[in-house]
Write a structure and sequence with these properties.
mainly alpha, single chain, 2 strands
């Protein structure tokens, strides 16, 4: 289920518009994740503050702090 969460997260984060309907998300997933699991994943992402689910659909709200991005940019991966 963790892989599924990562897949859903990536699709929502990389969406072209600011809002994506649940139906469009399901279409992009091509039936890889069943409806119950998808709803649990979306609930979890909303509780984590990464997405907002409104009347028009899903919006990505999470952003990494800029200082962390700068710090990691020149870091050495081991």
């Amino acid at each position: 289920m963790i892989n599924n969460k990562v897949i859903v997260e990536k699709i929502i984060k990389d969406m072209e518009s600011s809002v994506m309907s649940i139906a469009k998300l399901k279409k992009k997933l091509n039936g890889k994740i069943n409806n119950n699991n998808l709803m649990l994943i979306l609930k979890n992402l909303e509780e984590d503050g990464k997405i907002f689910i409104g009347l028009k659909g899903i919006t990505w709200t999470h952003s990494s702090p800029k200082h962390l991005k700068l710090m990691l940019k020149d870091s050495l991966e081991i």
